[in-house]
Queue: 2 jobs
Job 1
Amino acid sequence: QVQLVESGGGLVQPGGSLRLSCAVSGFTVDGYAIGWFRQAPGKAREKIACISSTDTVYYRDSVKGRFRISKDNAQNTMYLQMNSLKSEDTATYYCSARNRHRGAIGCEPAASGFDYWGQGILVTVSS
């Protein structure tokens, strides 16, 4: 049974940091493209970071230099380190993964192209 479970969200002041974790069971993160998405109230879900199956990394322009995606293959866990947080980073954050039967697995698709999802965790950036 595939499961992705996020943790580490909460309330943080502007300029602060949070580290989100996503514990994965049912598949190995090393063999998939894995990513982080977020969705603010009234807005579409957006891709913010991703690592392909060949370890190519993607970041949304608005988080470059502030956020870092990583994974621990031994622990089968993925992470999102968020620094210099802004009010506009407030959203529900989701970890996700996608797979293909052959070849490299890329990060190009939008949210609809990802196969497995966590339940989401709220991050609120406020004074």
Note: The chain has a mean pLDDT of 96.
Job 2
Amino acid sequence: QVQLVESGGGLVQAGGSLRLSCAASGRTYSTHVMGWFRQAPGKEREFVASIGRSAPNTYYADSVKGRFTGSRDDAKNTVWLQMDSLKPEDTAVYYCAAGFTLATIASVTTWGQGTQVTVSS
């Protein structure tokens, strides 16, 4: 019974930055962990980042470590993904996700509709 709405995608050149946001509304019982997945054209959806309600419970895919930073504001039921030093291979549709855990795609209980991120070379 949770709705996720993400925004902030766009077109940037390599080395640029974007900041994605995702707001949760409705009954948020399953938003203990919120985060992001992405799906590039012709490829399977993959994990990007998860942000728990405690800082130590924040994880990133190896491909984005040091470049992407996730954060959340539980009072606003909002999560952000700051993406720096973007590369063309980061081009994908980015999906906000929520669940008791984001360990696997199957464990995600709620998905956003996606926002396109395109990085030009």
Note: The mean pLDDT is 92.
